[in-house]
Amino acid sequence: MQKAKLSPSILSCDFMRLGESIQMLEKAGCDWLHLDVMDGHFVPNISIGVPVVESVRKNTSLFLDAHLMISEPEKYILPFAKAGSNLITVHIEVCPDIRKTLDLIKKTGCKAGVSLNPATPVESLSDAIGYADLFLVMSVNPGFGGQSFMSSGLDKLEWLRNKVDESGHPTLLEIDGGINDSNIESVRDAGADRIVIGSAIFANQDPFEKTKEYIKKAEGISR
After folding, report:
1. Single pTM value for the model
2. Domain span at 192
3. How many domains, the chain?
4. What is the pLDDT of residues 26-66, one digit of tens each?
5. I need a labelling partner for 167 at 20 to 30 A (CA). Which of 16, 56, 128, 177 fits?
6. Residue 176 catalytic?
7. Residue 56 sits in a domain of what CATH number?
8. Which one of the listed residues 65, 103, 127, 176 is annotated catalytic?
């Protein structure tokens, strides 16, 4: 059975209580935070920027997984690295030379990831296999939280799992979008190493207990 780790997204939390939410996730046993950065151009919404990442970094030692859903990410890699990101993920759709962009990320000392939207063929990531530190499969159209899971993400995960394993490179596979009780085991078993969940945690009446439950389900531990 594939074991995975939870990467909770703060996009759906109450930003008036961001610090409390991060402390809750730490106490529940999380080791990563997923930070959704949106520019209102590449995706139809605006979320957080460099100042929020800086603030998060000052208040936690957790691994910060910054997902740049933005146009021209090359212009912002260094600022997000300086803000305290540990891993920076860019989208293949806006990177004509993906290896060059990944090199820019790695030169900052951050891990380098590549994401793709649901409509983008998974084969577009071929040039980054054996080079990227992480592949992020979007199982919703990026831009908003709370969308329904697209099962096509499972096929992409399985394809990537096979290719990454063949390469022998220690690339992590991550999936983000619409993941909840009904599909967390499916994405884990399809090959995910990191599972991003936001709405299903923060919309729950007891997000602390729900986070602990998802950590166990990601790792394949029965309650």
Report:
1. 0.94
2. 5-219
3. 1
4. 999 999 999 999 888 888 887 888 999 999 999 999 999 99
5. 177
6. yes
7. 3.20.20.70
8. 176
